[in-house]
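Fold this: CPBP family intramembrane glutamic endopeptidase
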Amino acid sequence: MFIKQAIRKQNKFWKYLLGSAVIITMSFIGQIPLVITVLVKTALTGENYPMTNEGVMHFLDSNLTFFLILLSFVFAFAGIYFVVNYMHKQTMLSLTTSRKKIDWNRIWFSFGLWAIISIVSVLVYVFLNPELYVFNFKPIPFTILFVIAVLLIPIQTSTEEYVFRGYLMQGFANLAQNRWFPLVMTSLIFGGMHLFNPEVAKIGNIIFVYYIGTGLFLGIITLMDDGMELALGFHAANNLIGALLVTSDWSAFQTNSIFKDLSVPNAGFDIIMPVVLIYPVLLLIFSRKYQWKNWKEKLTGTIDSKH
């Protein structure tokens, strides 16, 4: 089983704490190019260094900022590879899936399904609320954005999945010897990771229902499917389509997307709808396609650590 693959005596929980520190450190190192670029611009133009995240997001060209932000995830992914291979003596495959090799068909199915749903829902919402959106398409900036997004967003989303649904999921399983504790903890930490997103300040804490609910959904499909493939595909589609289709002045990613959202952010039903309606439908689709059974055991059962 996927979550059981890291249950071994030498994988003490303190190793996961140390490994997490290494991954976080690598992420911070990956942010140095952004800091240097901002400092160079302040030196050349005489402008003051931006003191807020929002200020940094608007200080440079949006495509350059987008690239430099995503670059930090390349460093973080390198940190994951080092920690898994050299600290835990595991393979990346064992952190990914219980199958003999990564099932790319699962990744592409999940990616395609969520990409279609996302594109259709955005276009329908734009059509029904034309006053809330402007057509923001500029061929050259969008082309540059497209290249950056296609190359780096899968690395960004995969890094987050390998940390939460892979590394920490297996780490908490080592600690608790069950499945429900890793599922709950990784969902809460995943939600908390978005604490400093600008959406939180604009919409309020209700948005954590979406963040934590999304983490819970991704954790459930990982445990039920005995691998991260479906979560990898979903997360990549979610961020890639979001970055290319819609941007706003208050979103985490400022991009040269096709549409710009002019609406005033508020805590409406659209924040909760994915968690209470869309995600259950996706669980039904995945469960039927991949013949999931023994839900209670796979999500809450104990783990036999004997080898």
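Strands lie at 133-135, 246-247, 259-261. The chain has one domain: 13-300.
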